[in-house]
Amino acid sequence: MTASSRTKTQLYEAGVDHIKVFCDLNSFPMPVMRPAKLENWRFDACAFYRPQYIAICIPKCATIGTAAQAWSYPGYVIDRTPFGVVAHELGHHADYMMGSKKGDYWSDYGANIRNRSGEDKITNYCPNDAEWFAEIFRLFVTNPDLLQRIRPRAFGMIAKDFRPLECGHWTGVLKDAPQRTIEQAAKKIVAAEKSSAGLLI
Question: At residue 29, does pLDDT exceed 60?
Fold first, then answer.
């Protein structure tokens, strides 16, 4: 079954399975998953992290993008499907668990990586250091080769503490993605390479 043919619930289940394997690989504590029904959900966001658990409202998550500006796809730079949302929230869990100075859902771990890497956000969802890190970590969990190509310094810093689950080429993760998704990923890689070359001059 390709990602495109999965329901939101199936994408959620695949995402939970994926992060469980990632946590097992890294001997890292798996957060408790708390799916909620739409009628009981009182938040604008489709998910949130609080220490040790992830709350998610699957119906509020995005579907896989097939038209217009909807570019979301599992393993792509943008992924607001339940698969990506679970990995994003795992990023908050990693941030919280790895740091020393802590807030409600963040710590200084993610902020330090952002500051030391000096790299830009990967999506427009970046109101603060915690969300910058959660988006970066999501891609580290779902398509590390793609992250390594577009944000190599952040990838290297995270890789000192976590082992990537996927070890193949980024196109393998996106093998069933729409052609435009693959083309956009390739463009982002070229832009990152040009930016990096400019920093070296």
Answer: yes
Percent of the chain with pLDDT over 90: 86
Tally of domains within the chain: 1
Asked if 116 and 87 touch (Cβ cutoff 8 Å), the reply is no
CB within 8 A of 58, min separation 6: which ones?
8, 9, 12, 35, 46, 82
For helices 129-142 and 152-159, give the axis angle rounded to 10 degrees.
80
As given in the structure block, the two tokens for residue 163 are 């082992």
Q: Containing domain of residue 147, as a range?
A: 3-200
pTM: 0.94
**Which among 144, 44, 54 is positioned nearest to 90, based on CA atoms?**
54
**Residue 12 CB burial class (10 angstroms; 0-12, 13-18, ≥19):** buried
CA 165/CA 132 separation, integer angstroms: 21
